[in-house]
Amino acid sequence: MSSNSNDRCAKCNFGVDRVFRKAPLKACSKCKTAQYCSKECQTEHWPIHRPMCKPHDPQKTWGIQLLCKGEFKLLNTEDESARFKHIHLPNSHPVFTIGELCPVPALCGFPLLIFSPGVHLGQQPTGEWENQPAVYLRIEPKDAFAPMPWQMLDPGTCILARKDHKSLTKETIEAVWKWTAKIIDAAGYPTYDGWAPIRGLVNPATFQMFTRDYFKEQKAKGRKGFDEFWNPL
C-alpha cells in the first residue's frame, strides 16, 4: 500500500483515526515497518510487502529501478508494470546527490527524484537504452516536453526515489507515470491539438483525484497492491 503511514493498516487502510477500525494494529514481526489490523490483511498483503520486508535502516531508502527498453524486453512480458522494481538505496546514492527533481510531480506535492546513467553520467552503451516512462516523468509543466538531454540521449535504466526519503512503491510510481502521460495527452503531443491548459492541470488536487481513481480502477481489475488510499500519495 503506497500511502500507508504508521497509524494505518498496510492492506485495508483502517487506522487509529478511523471510527470503525477492526482491531489494534500489529507490526510485521520481521521488518517492524508495516502494520496490520488482522492476520487476514497481513496474509493477503504479503505478496506486495515481501519485496520490501527488511528491517528499517535509517541510512537506506526504498526506491524504484525503472528498466530501460532492452532490459524490459529480457523479461519476456508485455506487462509494462514489470519495468518497475523495488530497490533498497543507500542515502549516498547518486539519485540523492545529482538526480533531478521531476517538476510535474513536484508541483503536485510529490517530490520525485530521477537519476539516469545516460543523462547524468554520459553512459551510452550499445543496445536499447530507450526509457519512455523515464522521459515522461521528466516533462516540464510549461509544454509537457522533457529537457533536450532526455530527448537526445538514451536514459538507460533509471533510479527513482522520493526526495523526502519516504518509501516509493511500484504501484505509486506507476500511477505517477500514468499521470504524466495524461498531462502529455492534455498538451496534445504529438498532434498539438491539446484540450486543456497544462499548467492549470498540474496541481495537488487534480493529481490526487487522478491517482485515487487510478488505484480504484486497478483494484477493480483485481490487481494486487492497488488498494484504496486515504492519505495523499
Automatic annotation (TrEMBL):
Domain of life: Eukaryota
Entry keyword Acetylation: no
Keywords: Metal-binding, Zinc, Zinc-finger
MYND-type domain boundaries: 9-53
GO MF: zinc ion binding
The keyword Zinc belongs to this UniProt entry's keyword annotation: yes
A UniProt-annotated Pfam family: zf-MYND
Protein name: MYND-type domain-containing protein
Organism from which the protein derives: Amanita thiersii Skay4041
Upper taxonomic lineage: Eukaryota, Fungi, Dikarya, Basidiomycota, Agaricomycotina
